[in-house]
Amino acid sequence: MTVSENEMLKNILKNVVSMELRVKKAEVKDTIDLMDGFGLKYKNSWASMELADHTVIDFWRKDLIKSSTAEE
Questions:
Q1: Which domain of life is it from (predicted)?
Q2: pLDDT 10s per residue in the chain (72 long)?
């Protein structure tokens, strides 16, 4: 990955409001922890669903989730 690609991805993560990720079932906890480090929190919603070998996880910016303010 080039430097400009890295910068572009950093900018996307910095400005994202929400994101849905398809994650292997064995990697769900690690992915939730990783995304937490980027300021995104797992939010249980209709978008979170189970597939055969994957789970679709809905993440939202921590500062946009009302309950996260009390936790931090």
A1: Bacteria
A2: 788 999 999 899 889 999 999 999 999 999 999 999 999 999 876 656 778 899 999 999 998 877 644 454
